[in-house]
Amino acid sequence: MKINQICPTALLAGAALAVITVGGPAAAADLTGIAAPVEYQSPWQIRLRGLGVITEDKGYVDGVLDSDLSYSDTVIPELDISYFFTDNIAAELILGTTYANVMGDGSLTAMGRIGKTWLLPPTLTLQYHFTDLGRFKPYVGAGATYAIFYNQDADGVQDMDIDNTFGAALQVGFDYMIDDHWGWNVDVKKIFLEPDYTVTVGGAELSGKAKLNPWLIGTGVTYRF
């Protein structure tokens, strides 16, 4: 049989065989529609931190010259829950509770401890995570908190009432991932928190502002599901 008499079907079959042979397994996978499996990563992440709460120690009583306030610093456990909308964008809910001794300062120093209050400030931040640095994954965030003051006990006064209030939050931190799930976290937040309050002294009701504005400095364990 002459060359120019070779069946066109045979030529097409030979060409297809050559493509599969040259392209190898990848080409064969493409022809069959089978793609390489993609590893699934959950959008949920939790962290457990030890947290230092360092207050600004400022405040005043309305109408009292040189009045000031100070507050005790504490160390507490903290749990946060994160949800990743994308590899870079996440929301984080921060949960923890602490207490503060409220003390007179400036012209109020002689009053000593005015009282004690517990504080629950659930804080929600929206974060941007940098993902091109390997195991080192820094992030920045901003959001809001709602501070709930409870179990308030007066000491140097007859009564003390600190108002619940909203505040803003800024955040910076990083995770260093040991493997796909476990990591070490360092986190710093600044909470802008200046609640109003009232106290009763000698039957007279006084009001003012407690400028807590705490720094929250923590470190702990990260787990990505």
From TrEMBL:
InterPro entries: OMP/PagP_B-barrel, OMPW. Transmembrane segments: none annotated. Keywords: Signal. Residues 1-28 form the signal peptide. Belongs to the OmpW/AlkL family. This is OmpW family protein. It comes from Jiella pelagia.
